[in-house]
Amino acid sequence: MHTSVVPDCKHCRRTSGRESRMQKISVLLFLAWVCFLFYAGIALFTSGFLLTRLELTNQSSCQEPPGPGSLPWGSQGKPGACWMPSRFSRVVLVLIDALRFDFAQPQCSHVPGEPPVSVPFLGKLGSLKRILEVQPHHARLYQSQVDPPTTTMQRLKALTTGSLPTFIDAGSNFASHAIVEDNLIKQLTSAGKRVVFMGDDTWKDLFPGAFSQAFFFSSFNVRDLHTVDNGILEHLYPTMDSGAWDVLIAHFLGVDHCGHKHGPHHPEMAKKLSQMDQVIQGLIERLENDTLLVVAGDHGMTMNGDHGGDSELEVSAALFLYSPTVLFPSVPPEEPEVIPQISLVPTLALLLGLPIPFGNIGEVMAELFSGGSGGGSSRGDGDASHPDSPALAQVSALYINAQQVSRFLHTYSAATQDLHVKELRRLQELFSKASARYQHLLQHPREAEAALSSLTADFQQFLRGARAVCIESWARFSLVRMAGGAALLAAACLLCLLASQLAVAPGFLFRPLLLIPVAWGLTWTLLYAGVSVTTGSKLDPVVLGAVAAAGSLLPFLWKAWLSWGSKRPLAPLLPVPRPVLALLLIRLATFFSDSFVVAEARATPFLLGSLILFLVAQLHWEGQLLPPKLLTTSRLGSSAPTAPPRHSGTHALLLGIGLLLFTRLAGLFHRCPEETPACRSSPWLSPLASMVGGRAKNLWYGACVGALVALLAAVRLWLRRYGNLKSPEPPVLFVRWGLPLMVLGTAAYWALASGAEEVPPRLRALVAGASAVLPRAVMGLAASGLMLLLWRPVTVLVKAGAATSRTRTILTPFSGPPTSQADLDYVVPQIYRHMQEEFQGRLERTRAQGPITVAAYQLGSVYSAAMVTALILLAFPLLLLHVERVSLVFLLLFLQSFLLLHLLAAGTPVATPGPFTVMWQAVSAWVLLATQTFYSTGHQPVFSAIHWHAAFVGFPDGHGSSTWLPALLVGANTFASHLLFAVGCPLLLLWPFLCERQGPKKRQSLPGSESEARVRPEEEQEEPLMEMRLRDAPHHFNAALLQLGLKYLFVLGAQILACALAASILRRHLMVWKVFAPKFIFEAIGFIVSSVGLLLGIALVMRVDGAVSSWFKKLVLAQQR
Amino acid sequence: MEKVAGGINASSWAGLPLSVRLFSSTIGYPLIVTQEDTMKDTDIKRLLYTNLLCIFSVFLSIFIPSFFLDNFSILETHLVWLGTCSAFVTGANLLLYLVVKPNVSSKRSSLSHKVARVVRCWLYFLASCFFLHIIFVLYGAPLMELVLETFLFAVVLSTFTTVPCLCLLGPNLKAWLRVFSRNGVTSVWENSLQITTVSSFIGAWLGAFPIPLDWERPWQVWPISCTLGATFGYVAGLVISPLWIYWNRKQLTYKNN
In this predicted structure, which of A66-70, A113-117, A810-814, A920-924 has the lowest mean pLDDT? Predict the structure, then answer.
């Protein structure tokens, strides 16, 4: 019998030595190719969905009026008068970042019944209120309506160009680039005005070299409330007094940073706003008669102090105008007027006597042009004596504005076709009629009043219509590309389904898997490139990728279809069992409802819980559970002889309930979306530094460190249980000594970070240094640990001391040293065959030889030990990027996945010779768990919820000019759960083998299981081979890894497909930019992160496999000596 | 579901406790296999009538209270309706248990045994209420707020699921586990019980889905949609089960002797 076993294996080994490696490589490459298909689909869809606006580089110029027709003030060319005579020669623009409207709103104290409101941000700008009361004709407060996205760079672009920044720009907030469009600053410099800037250094990137004098301060460190503001204050008044300026811009960041760090309800906000109040007061005192003061917020902030989206609080900003001369003919209205923010652009341009920037679509604030003051600098000659001059001046300003917008629309629609033609024609007619009437009016000034007011209304209607057309068209989609992208995604999903079934089919060949698609893809790509070069059109990389993907995908699908056979039904392709399929479909359907996308943080745990209870119920239904102990006197139900090992019912139920409990606990850490005002975010997601109570802070700190230690202890316990902790290999040594060091470093860093405000001044430098060094040290340790793991991934105990002991521990089963070279080749499989041979009685050996069992146990968990070590090494740096209390979530995450794996393993039969399969419910539960963790680590799929503070972990002073490192840190923070779960994905395949050990043990301990022992006596005696079963059948192992990867990619890909379809079908939905588009973007990036993580995880398993092979080889060589 | 045809084999039937065998032989399904078809038809007919009575009790719980209470409506005085619905359905089940099916343990039990049995039934019912409450909280129901609402939902769902189990199978967890496993069903009644219980749970589960939607309807509030879902599920189960059993009567063979 010995000889009969070995030849079998001889055969398989001989073929699989090199073959196996080839298979591994082709599995990895195939998965990478499938990922590429998805990427191509995502890119194609994105290019059609997230359109950028065409940026025109035309400039308005002084000499060239925006249109034909005469103006009341006759010819141009006077000093300081371009399209319109200037009213002010100097402007002070104070931008207070995130100055929400209600921050500036004067608080009415005349309501007697109400108690005084004690919100920190209300009523702190007292100087505005005073001025508005004392000099109502000199000042005005507006609520300016901001266009989303409400990120600072987009707002600055809008505030200077008067245009609408499009959605796609939102991502590049911290990598801003110079503005190419015509803008106010450009106009100012070309008019020879001296522009002095101080504050946020975003302006440096937007307007390089435009300022005559500039004081830039870094905007990136959002934890620093004072550096920028104090820097400005140092230069503001001296500059102002020196008089060497025409336009002075000061961009304060303190309020915004205070919002990010503490939220608007913190006492710090009151201090910051009072400081701003003093600044405004100081400026007002220094203003001269020819100067206009503009105080503006670029956007608002949410209740949490974030911004970026389009909630009511984010899009309302304050705008305050003041001049020592009379500005307004009338007193301010009771309730401040609501105006679009970009109205400021044409208004400022015309007030300063500049041309309006070419691409402006804002509407001029007409009442500022009534010219009510006596002290305005210059007036047109013709209308000075005119009785209607204020009204006429207003209409004229609107006329010029309308001319400019009309010119822009004309130019823009000539350059692209995306403006709505019919609407455009209607607007054009409206404009030409109104301008004809205006010209008529100029020639016949007596017809007056009524005509003037109707003209005002017409121009305003035109301007608003034009703005609406632009807003609508800059959200216009390329339907062809969207459909193509969605089709590509769908085809890739189908491919995943087909290939995952084919992979485990008998006689599956790996090599042709890759050659055909690559060949076809290359052919098509070359063909496309050739055609586009010959026709001279531009080569679009997105289209090129899509052509390559489609070209390689279609032949493969065709071939797979043929090999699948047209006769066979398609039903087996779909995820089984049906309830899991239904659950997946429900999950996909939720992407089409904005309410469900918003409520996904609650819906995902619900679905996960349903899946868990379904798994338990299914185990019971299938009769795979033993009844609870108290009922074991007589067993019921069928006991089929082929049934997999049965588990205790209470055990499974407890696993399920425990999972539900942990899921619920993790759900306590949740951050509310802006759309649900009734919801209250968990206070535990804020950093400890923002806590006020000292004792509570210390308790929480203790809990966080406790979570870290528990995490460490859990992993060590796990490794010890499977014996891997005894191995002297470097990764294990690292787990024993390096991990505690990492815990220590993390704890120390948290202590510094949470108590940084209370540090005595002389220790400041030390603390700052340490808070930079500690995180880097932890990350460095983690990286070196991963390197060690990659270098020596086999964590098996081999007694130090050399060959003799090795022989004793491992090779004694094999009846002495091998006698020939041929024998040597076969000794490797024998090492893990020996257990089977043992119970077959081929070798006479007692079971008392302890070391062998130990070694076998280690070998049995060698893959998962490496995986778990890698995961914990990955988890620590990711944990460091989050706020302290998320460590509890990470602990829960590990516990949850541990329980889930156990529960799944209970339902997975271990097919000994293969083929191995990974069940759909396993993959679905894993994806759901990843999504749930994404939410419970405090994330939301909206831009305002991104944890920017992660960029400062280890870099408390910012990053200088580099952008990829902060982007990496923030990305790692955001997609931590995607990464962890994707890397840990192979555990789904490995765990059932790992749990094999527990089955017999459990049964032995049960009182009433003698009968079972009689039924399967062999299995009782069999030593668990565990993961070595996988190694036994390398072909099946590789196929199972491929199937696992494909199934995981399918579930993720189906999600991204659903998101894409939702975004395209609901592209006119009210919530598309608020909910669906961000969800799609987050899901797409999450997919990319997950797919990379998946490839890494599978590659790690393959690396361990290779290392185990070479380890066996070494063992044999040692034996030979 | 087609796999029910397999039936449980004789040896495991022998493993059943005596009470279950007695119980199942007394509730009126055939002991002689040759008569099985006709007996099954009459059984199905009786099942249909009993189920109609249960449905009727649910409707009664909607209409009766409005005679006694002024502004009674399901949505506004939801808790009252939950209570009455639970009471009516329990009453209907008990009635059926007493009238349609003869008392199981009459032959061998004394009064104390009966009392003990009733007490155990009560305990089981309460335990199932608390268990369901815990499950709801784990599924995301609020822990501190709306405790009464959540608990009454648990009571109603227990009424739809646990009470029929108690009536048909008695306080016997083993039998329950048997009925809810593959091939575990031994009679038309148990089959119907299986279907109604599962459909009640599914209805309650589906009832949770409208909660996040922004339709601003009064019935979207926790736990109203879930209780309504459970009720619909229960009623649907009652309607479907006789039909389904009738439809599949050729395939269904309850091998029980």
Answer: A810-814
Question: What 3-state DSSP class applies to A529?
Answer: helix
Give CA–CA dist A698/A693, Å, rounded. Answer: 9
Q: Locate the chain A residue with the closest alpha carbon to B202.
A: A610
**Complex confidence, ipTM:** 0.84
A618 touches chain B (CB under 8 A): no
Three-state DSSP string of B69-105: CCCCCCCCCHHHHHHHHHHHHHHHHHHHHHHCCCCHH
Binning pLDDT at 50, 70 and 90, where does residue A780 land? very high
Distance CA A933, CA A942 (A): 16
Contact list in A for residue B12 (CB cut-off 8 A) is 635-639
Residues with Cβ within 8 Å of A806's Cβ and at least 6 positions away in sequence, in order, are A798, A799, A1115, A1118, A1119
Nearest to A974 by CA among A890, A1060, A882: A882
Asked if residue A462 has pLDDT above 60, the reply is yes
More confident of the two residues A356 and B37: A356
Label the pairing between strands A195-200 and A247-252: parallel
Output the average pLDDT for chain A. 78
Contact A637 B178 (CB under 8 A): yes
Structure tokens at A980: 């962890």
For A1023, list phi and psi in degrees, rounded to 5.
Answer: -75, 140
Burial code of A257-277, b = ≥16 C-beta within 10 A, e = fewer?
Answer: bbbbbbbbebebbbebbebbb
Looking at the partner chain, which of B137, B183, B214 has a beta carbon nearest the beta carbon of A638?
B183
**Tens digit of each residue's pLDDT (9 = 90 or more) over A59-96:** 888 878 787 776 766 544 455 567 888 888 899 999 99
Domain boundaries, chain A: 90-384
A525-529 contacts at long range (C-beta below 8 A, 24 or more positions apart): A525/A551
CB contact under 8 A, A610 and B205: yes
Q: Is B69 on the interface with A (CB under 8 A)?
A: no
pLDDT at A394 over 90: no
Question: Is the CB of residue B147 less than 8 Å away from at least one CB of chain A?
Answer: no
Kindly tell me if the per-residue pLDDT of A716 is higher than 80: yes
Contact A933, A893 (CB under 8 A): yes
Decide if B13 touches A, using CB distance below 8 A.
Answer: no
Q: Which of B11, B18, B172, B214 to mutate to test the interface with A (most CBs of A within 10 A)?
A: B214
> Which chain B residue has its CA at the smallest distance from A602's CA?
B140
> Where does the pLDDT of residue A1064 fall: very low under 50, low under 70, confident under 90, or very high at 90 and above?
confident
Class of domain A90-384: alpha beta
Cβ B213–A595 below 8 Å, yes or no?
yes
Alpha helices in chain B (DSSP H): 10-15, 18-26, 36-63, 65-68, 78-99, 111-138, 147-169, 173-179, 188-207, 224-247
More confident position, A687 or B163:
B163
Residues of chain B with pLDDT > 90, as a percent, come to 39
Quick check: A959 and A1021 in contact, CB under 8 A? no
> CA B239: distance to chain centroid?
13
Query: Mean pLDDT across the stretch B139-153?
Result: 90
Whole-number pLDDT of residue A661: 94
**Distance, CA of B4 to CA of B245 (rounded, Å):** 11
DSSP string, A659-670: HHHHHHHHHTS-
pLDDT confidence of residue A758: 72
Contact A584, B119 (CB under 8 A): no
Tell me if chain A has a CB within 8 Å of the CB of B11: no
Mutate to test the interface with B, among A590, A636, A1075 (most CBs of B within 10 A): A636
* B45 interfacial to chain A (CB closer than 8 Å): no
As a three-state string, the secondary structure of A1064-1108 is HHCCCCCCHHHHHHHHHHHHHHHHHHHHHHHHHHHHHHHHHHHHH
Q: For residue A115, what pLDDT is reported?
A: 53
